[in-house]
Amino acid sequence: MGRRRFTAPRVHEAMIIGVGVDLVEISRVRSMIASQGERAIKRLFTESERDYCTGMANPARHYAVRVAAKEATFKALSGSDEARGIGWREMEVELDHIGRPSIRLHGRASARAKELGVANTWISLSHGD
User: Fold this and answer.
1) CA separation for the pair 85, 108 (Å, rounded)
2) Euclidean distance between CA atoms 18 and 29, whole angstroms
3) What is the pLDDT of residues 32-54, one digit of tens each?
4) Residue 103 belongs to what H/E stretch?
């Protein structure tokens, strides 16, 4: 009989680096837009996000879900002084041709993801009234 050789389990290349979860009330974003207007929108969202949201019947709903996605992404990437400086427009919510959301990272957010060895990001968007 041959000897069985023990092989240690392989570490999978894909592992979760960080998880962030957040929920933002649509009414909170609606109030922010009413009180701060375009100034707040330009501070929080990329031009592409602004174009998408303003083209929708209820822009506050779409802005709110993007705030939540960005706050969740920030939480997943946090952990260093540099990461705590990630700005709102350094995280951008995009939709592909079938409406599947993803998060594109720019600047410090992208650098932090590379530092952590992030290969992929996944997000899920949900909103209600």
Assistant:
1) 7
2) 26
3) 999 999 999 999 999 999 999 99
4) strand 101-105
